[in-house]
Specification:
The chain has about 650 residues and is of the alpha/beta class. It folds into 4 domains: about 1-35 and about 135-165, DNA polymerase, domain 1 (Orthogonal Bundle), CATH 1.10.150; about 40-130, Nucleic acid-binding proteins (OB fold (Dihydrolipoamide Acetyltransferase, E2P), Beta Barrel), CATH 2.40.50; about 230-425, P-loop containing nucleotide triphosphate hydrolases (Rossmann fold); about 435-600, 3-Layer(aba) Sandwich (Rossmann fold). Helix content is about 40%, strand content about 20%. The chain is built from 21 helices and 21 strands. A 7-stranded parallel β-sheet has the order 11-12-10-13-14-9-15, sandwiched between helices. A 6-stranded parallel β-sheet has the order 16-21-20-17-19-18, sandwiched between helices. Bound molecules: adenosine-5'-diphosphate and magnesium ion. Adenosine-5'-diphosphate binds near residues 249, 251, 279, 428 and 532.
């Protein structure tokens, strides 16, 4: 069944559902409530001024609608609840009037004003509370869709698909844990009537999601063990010669990781390693040396990054370090066609040793003569099917993933269980701690002064805002708005420019290059600069609406400054949420902050503002549900090792799902 075939979903609601990332019936039925409202009758004896109340009763007077101004009306009526009469008013629900005839039973939720004896309702529902409590699922919405709409569509879909819901838990495990069927679980999660049952099915659905996830990790681990490594013999002294041409001395952590990689490359097993390291810890150079080692043993390397800006930066970096020793090329979407053809040819005939670029590198029609190492930076690791692609080309290159989003080690060992993990903890010497300052909006004049002080010393500044366009419905500041503010303040003396994700890449690159070379003093940006950018002379970062971001994201952003010995400052501007933001003042340790994020927001923000496909759980939360995760890990491993005959089909389904990703 397709989404459009669900009863009640028309073309208009289809578009709205798509907006919520609901594309299939499966997405719809697993669109879980973000929370539940427990509707329990308020005891009037306990009411103090201005408390939220939930009561039920009968309509006592014909509702009266008063128009206040365009787009705003108010409806008033009297309600009899048990033995009292009180007033109810509600804004912009005139359409309810026809249902509220005298005597109708309603549930009213709102704020009670004791002196006026009036409830200003936020919601009115038909029906009564009865003696038991009512549990109402609350969904994340988009404008044009009500909570009721979504609930109805989900229930229609559940009716429509009948018993045909795929259950990813093998039956022997379902029996062991006394889980209800998937269908029943879905029915309950969307229409709960009993808190205890709701808890049980929530655990069941979390377990299922984590079982599937850990099955994937364990499967990948097993598959990876089957792959032989490429023959190599890289000697320690070979790389030590390269250390001499570096513009700085490597830190001990960097050296340790390089040794780990060298051992991996030399081993008969294929390398599958994750390199975690805080922002600014110097991961790039480690990957460059890895690629150099790979070159020494006669293989080609590809460095994959998520943005062209980053590709450019890495390319220039490698070129200036190794340009005399190896042939390096840059291949991105904006490489001119003729140039592309040349690069393709030189990759195929082996002339090029290192190629830097975006995802296109490992897909499409790129043919390598002998690809030996793939490095991905700041990028969600690539899936099995992409590895399959490489295998089809007759290659099983070693893989190094680099990530600046550190996650606590205990979790890393499980959720990255298919990889070996290296960690850089130490920052390069000579770095000064970044000073972090919190400011309110009415202190912007101070902020401008601080900026001016920095500019006078010929340092550069990043200014970050969450939005591109002005947006009437929120007070968030937009980058365009900021630009005019900055132009007013500094435009006469300083160069100001703007980048955002919706710009054509060529324009973005041009501006970034100007910022890198110091021709732009203030760069206003959305979070597109979050990953990887390295401009040493930038010493100040100003983040507007800082409360909009998770701590890890803010830490990533802040990591764009403090990349040299210049004293750097990060200014967070927000009127709200200051307690959480204070944490950033106390530490510059990304691991600690990710722990804090973990505590405060669960795993949701772990991967920055972008939802990572790998870690985007619908119901489970790696931190809160860690025990379930461990159990699911154990169970899925056993399931993979010795799948009962009657479950072979399920196993195939799970594997084919992995391959589709
Ligand atoms: P990240 O780990 O965030 O990717 P980078 O690799 O971009 O960090 O390194 C941050 C900056 O530190 C770069 O300018 C890089 O040249 C510099 N750097 C890396 N290692 C060292 C070192 N051992 N000593 C001094 N500077 C270093
Ligand atoms: Mg980096």
């Amino acid at each position: 069944m397709e989404l459009k075939d669900v009863k009640g979903i028309g073309p208009k609601s289809l578009v709205l559902l798509n907006k919520l990332n609901i594309m299939t019936v499966d997405d719809l039925i697993s669109y879980y409530p973000v929370r539940y409202d427990i509707l329990k009758r308020t005891d009037f004896n306990e009411i103090t001024e201005d408390t939220k109340v939930i009561i039920d009763g009968r309509v006592e007077s014909i509702p009266l609608v008063v128009r206040i101004k365009a787009g705003l009306n108010k409806m008033n009526f009297r309600l009899v609840s048990e033995d009292r009469i009180l007033g109810v008013s509600i804004f912009n629900r005139a359409f309810l009037k026809q249902h509220l005839t005298i005597g109708t039973s309603v549930i009213v939720i709102g704020k009670y004003d004791k002196t006026k004896n009036v409830i200003t309702a936020s919601d009115i529902k038909l029906g009564s509370l009865g003696d038991s409590l009512k549990i109402e699922p609350v969904y994340h919405l988009t404008s044009g869709l009500t909570n009721k709409n979504i609930s109805t569509y989900i229930n229609m879909a559940l009716l429509g698909i009948g018993k045909n819901v795929l259950d990813y838990i093998p039956d022997y495990l379902s029996e062991k844990y006394k889980f209800v069927s998937k269908k029943i679980a879905l029915n309950i999660i969307h229409n709960p009537s009993d808190i205890e049952k709701l808890k049980q099915v929530t655990i069941r659905l979390k377990y299922e999601e984590l079982f599937e996830f850990m099955f994937k990790i364990n499967y990948l681990k097993k598959e990876n063990l089957k792959l032989d490594g490429l023959p190599r013999k890289i000697l320690k002294k070979d790389i030590e010669s390269i250390y001499k041409i570096l513009p700085f001395k490597l830190t001990n952590d960097q050296k340790t990781v390089i040794e780990e990689i060298r051992t991996d490359l030399n081993s008969s097993k294929r390398m599958n390693r994750l390199l975690q390291g805080d922002v600014g810890s110097g991961k790039t150079i480690v990957s460059i040396i890895a690629m150099y080692m790979n070159h020494l043993s006669g293989y080609q390397s590809a460095l994959m990054v998520p943005t062209e800006i980053l590709a450019n930066q890495h390319y220039n970096n490698i070129k200036s370090l190794l340009g005399d020793l190896v042939k390096v090329e840059l291949l991105t979407g904006s490489t001119p066609k003729k140039e592309k053809m040349r690069i393709y040819e030189e990759l195929a005939n082996g002339e090029i040793s290192i190629v830097v670029g975006t995802h296109a590198l490992i897909q499409s029609d790129v043919v390598y003569q002998n690809l030996g190492l793939v490095v991905t930076d700041e990028q969600h690791r690539f899936g099995v099917n992409q590895r399959e692609n490489l295998k089809n080309k007759g290659m099983t290159p070693d893989v190094l993933y680099m990530s600046a989003t550190p996650i606590p080690r205990t979790y890393a060992l499980t959720i990255y269980g298919d990889m070996d993990v290296s960690t850089i903890k130490e920052l390069p010497k000579g770095r000064q701690e970044i000073t972090t300052i919190l400011k309110k909006y009415d202190e912007i004049p101070d902020v401008l002064n601080l900026m001016y002080e920095e500019l006078k010393q010929h340092h550069q500044i990043y200014v970050i805002a969450p939005l591109i366009e002005e947006n009437d419905s929120s007070n968030l500041i937009s980058v365009n708005e900021l630009r005019s503010k900055m132009l007013d303040a500094f435009g006469k003396k300083y160069e100001i420019d703007l980048v955002h994700g919706k710009m054509p890449t060529a324009t973005k690159d041009e501006i970034m290059n100007k910022f890198s070379s110091g021709d732009v003093d203030i760069l206003i940006s959305t979070t597109v600069i979050e990953v990887g950018i390295d401009v040493k002379n930038a010493s100040m970062m100003v983040i507007f609406d800082a409360n909009r971001f998770g701590l890890s994201t803010l830490h990533q952003l802040r990591g764009r400054v403090g990349r040299s010995s210049i004293k750097s400052t990060c200014i967070l501007i927000s009127d709200q949420d200051t307690k959480r933001l204070e944490i950033l003042k106390t530490t510059c340790d990304g691991f600690k902050l990710s722990e804090e994020d973990f505590k405060l927001r669960g795993s949701g923000d772990l991967f920055g503002t972008k939802q990572s496909g790998d870690m985007a759980f619908k119901i489970a939360n790696i931190r809160e549900d860690y025990k379930i995760l461990l159990q699911a890990n154990k169970d899925s491993k056993e399931f993979l090792e010795k799948t009962p005959l009657e479950n072979l089909k399920l196993r195939d389904i799970l594997i084919s799902k992995i391959k589709q990703q």
